[in-house]
Amino acid sequence: MDTWQMIRTERAALVEALAALPPPAWERPSLCSGWAVRDVVGHLIATASMTPPRFFAKLIGSGFRFDAMVRKEIAAVTAGRTDAELVEALRGRVDARTGPPGPTMSWLGETIVHGEDVFRALGGYREHPVEHLVAVADFYKGSDLLIGAKSRIAGVTLTATDSAWRHGTGPEAAGPMVALVMAMTGRQAALDDLSGEGVAVLRGR
After folding, report:
1. Of 31, 94, 117, 181, which residue is least crowded by CB atoms under 10 Å?
2. From CA 116, how far away is CA 113, in angstroms rounded?
3. Which domain-ending residue is among 63, 97, 119?
């Protein structure tokens, strides 16, 4: 399946899930340190609205401080918008095929992972097509781009309990595919959803 089509499917499902959230949930902490749910949604909107030229212009405008640029973009997107307006803004980017510079697969990963930063923090994972999760896991296992997944999982065997996916050597960390993807990106909460001696190794990184 085309990567952008997978991104579209994930965005559309996430929009519907966000639309059903009760108002108090939007102010709850996500799995992203310092970000509430509405901040994560603002970031997803900002990313889906970005282009490489705009990215570099905004990075220069932020003094080449990536984190500062991200915070400014979140503030610009969320300021004055209600929760419902944020949902509609993200809905308006479902079909977008723009983003910062980087591999297209990274935006599929961002959509899935940031969506679960919201819903895992609120109590449980959403359902995802397994081929989407496998595609993201296959990308992350060989990449240290931004999140350092390749180094994080080195020396650990990751085994999915709900698909045939398996990667690595060493002590095993086993669990649902979505939890493995989240663990690869450093989400400590996802380690509670895995079992095996490899979990302790991942917890220490």
Report:
1. 94
2. 5
3. 119
